[in-house]
Write a structure and sequence with these properties.
Radius of gyration of chain B: 14 Å
Oligomer: heterodimer
Largest interface: A-B, 24 and 28 residues
Shape of chain A: globular
Mean pLDDT of chain B: 92
Structural class of chain A: mainly beta
Strand order of the largest sheet of chain A: 1-9-8-3-4
Number of strands of chain A: 9
Low-confidence stretches of chain B: none
Number of strands of chain B: 11
Number of helices of chain B: 0
Order of helices and strands of chain B: EEEEEEEEEEE
Radius of gyration of chain A: 13 Å
């Protein structure tokens, strides 16, 4: 299983972009990179996933390094509702999601 | 477009009682997964079920815990003779029938179990 390293916490001002990094240097060639977030007292919520190319959806963008050893989740304009713990999870044909400790994002008004 | 449903949302039990947690997957999903989250920790995989089959229960404690996903009705996670260490949030997730590498699991809101 690929190991991930994320900063314990980050802060952002409201309406500003946020870049949440994840290091997954042991990722294998077939591992997709999924990002989830968990708002307080809720279940994990799917955010985005990708394999090699950068990906965009209505929630966020995912930038994947060319060597795939790291990725960055980009929230283009943080809102107070984006305050959550963000997890990056490499997944390779397995159903056993491995959640690390994630990054706790604080958004300042 | 209902998501994954779990009930109850909060459950309080005294030591030695039984806890039953229910999970209804998203419409059209036939794969169910249970995870446990202890305070200030990440989620840990417990068990993976398909209709009427347990596929992988490697993350579930060998004693007191059991899970089922019957042909009709919700998936049930059952904890017998609960102890204080069972206090945690239990999350259910589901995914569609056709398993692919990039399959996404969709999580429910969780059941928070407190053992007194």
């Amino acid at each position: 299983d690929a190991k991930t390293t994320q900063p314990n916490s980050m802060e952002s001002n409201e309406e500003e972009p946020v870049h949440l990094p994840c290091n997954h240097s042991t990722i294998s060639g077939t591992d997709y990179i999924h990002w989830y977030r968990q708002l307080p007292s809720q279940g994990p919520e799917y955010v985005i996933h990708g394999l090699t190319s950068n990906v965009n959806n209505r929630m966020a963008s995912l930038a994947i390094a060319e060597d795939r050893k790291s990725s960055t989740l980009i929230l283009h304009r943080a809102t107070l509702r984006d305050a959550a713990v963000y997890y990056c999870i490499p997944i390779s044909g397995t159903y056993k999601y491995i959640f690390g400790t994630g990054t706790r994002l604080k958004v300042l008004a | 477009n209902a998501g994954v449903m779990q009930n109850p949302r909060h459950l309080v039990r005294r030591r030695g009682q039984e806890a039953r947690l229910r999970c209804s997957p998203m419409k059209g999903h036939s794969h169910v997964y249970w995870y446990r989250q202890l305070p200030e920790e990440g989620l840990k995989f417990m068990v993976y079920l398909q209709k009427e089959n347990i596929i992988d229960e490697s993350g579930m404690p060998k004693e007191r815990f059991s899970a089922e996903f019957p042909k009709e009705g919700p998936s049930i996670l059952r904890i017998q003779q609960v102890v204080r260490g069972d206090s945690a949030a239990y999350f259910c997730a589901s995914s569609p029938p056709l398993r692919e590498v990039s399959d996404t699991q969709y999580f429910g809101p969780g059941t928070r179990l407190t053992v007194l």
